[in-house]
Design a protein that fits this description.
The protein is an alpha+beta fold. The protein has eight helices and 14 strands. It folds into three domains: about 120 residues, Elongation Factor Tu (Ef-tu), domain 3 (Beta Barrel); about 60 residues, RNA polymerase II/Efflux pump adaptor protein, barrel-sandwich hybrid domain (OB fold (Dihydrolipoamide Acetyltransferase, E2P)), CATH 2.40.50.100; about 90 residues. Helices cover about 45% and strands about 25% of the residues.
């Protein structure tokens, strides 16, 4: 009887050890799964949900000077709106303007041309008079003098061409000075809001020194990740619906959490991340009221315009079968 009791006790102990080991392994596996990066799930509906979406700027520019100089003015302040083509700052340019004025006046003048034309007419007349005198009285003007007069007349004609060429060069130099004057201006290339003013009037700048920063806010990008399988369904131009992710933004007003912004897919990354099973995509979204701030988390739903067959240019099986049946009947 003691041996039987001992054997039963030993078996119970072994069973307890095995059960504890299995529970430990399950907890260990569960813990690892919770720390692994989430992979986008394959969408089974007509909507593809992009994971880990966020708002980013669509366009921005840090404006700098084309040349060294002293800032004469910096017009906008932080928060001011600017439009594309607007001059927002400028270097002191009094000397450059004076130089341009001289070049423009020189380019306008045609005095040298008119003088050369008059001189050519006089030279031609002297030559004709001498030739006429020799016809009336041969030998009255020596051949050497005649040759010299011909040379003077030809030189006078060439002086007209030179004067015309000089005027064209003066006009080009005037254009050059005008273009140089433009380098004293700092022009914004886009519509947007000034977010930083880095230099102020009176400060010295070198070529390339940043002066202010402008960001476009009327249109933003929303970037996210879709599974590799879904990436074959999503195409540029597909419609998207974007909302701010209230789950990651505690205290977000309900009216903002429910606000939907519509846009279009503009980019699908040609490179897939196989380990994470995702492909990066982003959409351009009109930012009504500038409510979508860069850096905020968002949710993005994509409505694919076609299936995998359309994406790769292959007819669906149903259409293929129908076509084959039609051919067989014919």
């Amino acid at each position: 009887m003691p041996r039987l009791i001992f054997g039963t006790t030993a078996l119970a102990g072994v069973a307890a050890l095995l059960l504890g080991s299995a529970i430990g392994q399950e907890r260990s596996t569960s813990g690892k799964a919770s720390t692994a990066p989430a992979k986008p799930a394959v969408s089974t509906s007509d909507i593809v949900v992009a994971q880990r979406s966020r708002v980013i700027l669509d366009d921005e520019a840090t404006l700098a000077s084309d040349r060294p100089g002293i800032l004469g003015f910096v017009e906008p302040a932080e928060g001011d709106r600017v439009t594309a083509g607007q001059q927002v700052a400028g270097l002191k340019d009094a000397v450059a303007k004076a130089t341009l004025a001289v070049a423009a006046k020189t380019a306008e003048s045609d005095v040298d041309i008119r003088y050369a034309q008059k001189a050519a007419a006089v030279a031609a007349e002297k030559l004709n008079k001498s030739l006429q005198a020799n016809r009336q009285n041969p030998g009255n003007v020596t051949e050497i003098e005649i040759s010299q007069l011909r040379l003077d007349a030809e030189r006078a004609k060439l002086q007209i061409e030179k004067a015309e060429l000089d005027k064209k060069i003066a006009e080009l130099q005037s254009d050059e000075k005008a273009a140089e004057l433009e380098t004293f201006q700092i022009i914004t290339p886009l519509d947007g809001i000034v977010t930083e003013v880095l230099k102020h009037a009176g400060e010295a700048v070198q070529q390339g020194d940043p002066i202010l920063r402008v960001v476009r806010t009327d249109i933003v990008r929303v970037e996210g990740f879709v599974s590799i399988a879904d990436a074959f369904r999503v195409q540029p131009g597909d419609s998207v619906k974007v909302r701010l992710d209230a789950a990651q933004l505690p205290g977000l007003p309900a009216v903002l959490a429910e606000r939907t912004f519509e846009g279009k897919i503009a980019f699908i990354d040609p490179t897939a991340k196989l380990i994470l099973n995702h492909v990066r995509v982003w959409a351009t979204v009109p930012n009504e009221g500038n409510l979508l701030k860069a850096g905020l988390p968002a949710t993005m739903e994509v409505k694919p315009s076609g299936d995998i067959s359309a994406a790769i240019g292959v007819a669906p099986k149903a259409e293929t079968a129908q076509a084959e049946a039609t051919e067989s009947r014919e």
